[in-house]
Amino acid sequence: MKDFFEGIEDLFELLLAPLDELRALELDSWFLANGLNWIFMAIGFLAFLYWMKQLKTFNDNNEENRESTSHSFLG
Questions:
Q1: Distance of alpha carbon 56 from alpha carbon 37, whole angstroms
Q2: pLDDT at 33 over 90
Q3: CA end-to-end distance (rounded Å), the chain
């Protein structure tokens, strides 16, 4: 049983090695060490812009029912 858990340990040490390299890079360059975070923030920002564009498209087409009876909790 011990070998099984040591195998899992070895697997995750191998899979997470790039993150260890990023952690070591922090001493040299904070911006490069947080590159993965910058990528995720850029993806989130682009998704937000796309979402806002879609909301504007639906708003311009008057596809939303804006009557007070459209939602039971409003009226």
A1: 29
A2: no
A3: 62
